[in-house]
Amino acid sequence: MNDIAKTSSGNVVWHQGRVSEDDRRGSLAQNPLTIWLTGLSGSGKSTVAYDLEYELLDRGFKAFVLDGDNVRHGLCGDLGFSADDRAENIRRVAEVARLMNDAGLIVISAFISPYRRDRDGARRVIGEERFVEIYLSTPIEICEQRDPKGLYEKARQGRIPDFTGVSAPYETPTDPSIRLDTSALNRRECMDRLLEELLPHASRK
Length: 205
Ligand SMILES: Nc1ncnc2c1ncn2[C@@H]1O[C@H](COP(=O)(O)OP(=O)(O)OP(=O)(O)O)[C@@H](O)[C@H]1O
Ligand SMILES: [Mg+2]
Description:
The chain has helices spanning about 20-30, 45-60, 70, 85-100, 115-125, 140-145, 150-155, 185-200; strands at about 35-40, 65, 105-110, 130-135, 180. It is an alpha/beta fold and about 200 residues long. It binds adenosine-5'-triphosphate (ATP) and magnesium ion.
């Protein structure tokens, strides 16, 4: 158990299962990872995440995407976009990613996750050895031109409060494992770059 776990009751005791992490790696023939995509709205997180999930499954890996908008349809449907709600959003997602990693799966997460403190919190919950930070560094001008959901236009009109890059900050990752500018690389090139880096980590040695 990690030392930052909090419980509201003192009467909670961890119950150790009988299947070891190593047994699970063997049974699934892979190393669990959380591939954490961060970047502005429209930078390409969801597109890249689902492309990568497809490519990994095609190679026999067991992977699953946790996507920002999708998670807000259920688990995080009660949260908004204030800094506190974003922190809670990322905390919950990190706990889910950790459970999925404990189950042996590869998680690909696609969240703006604009605050460094929240991303670092996710890294602590998930574990340094499993967490791979990927920064989608697509410039805001390009994201805004793409505006796939029309959100920048609304945000510029003042119709969306706390919109990252317009009325709320984005804190750039200081030391990501990979940087991808999706305005300079096409979708295939993004996959080639990611797979080159990730397959050696995901494959069971
Ligand atoms: N190389 C590329 N990789 C990914 N997306 C690309 C690329 N080139 C162009 N695009 C386009 O950029 C847009 C990215 O939108 P996408 O929904 O993936 O962004 P997002 O980061 O998930 O945004 P949000 O935070 O709002 O969910 C899509 O319309 C996609 O087709
Ligand atoms: Mg998205």
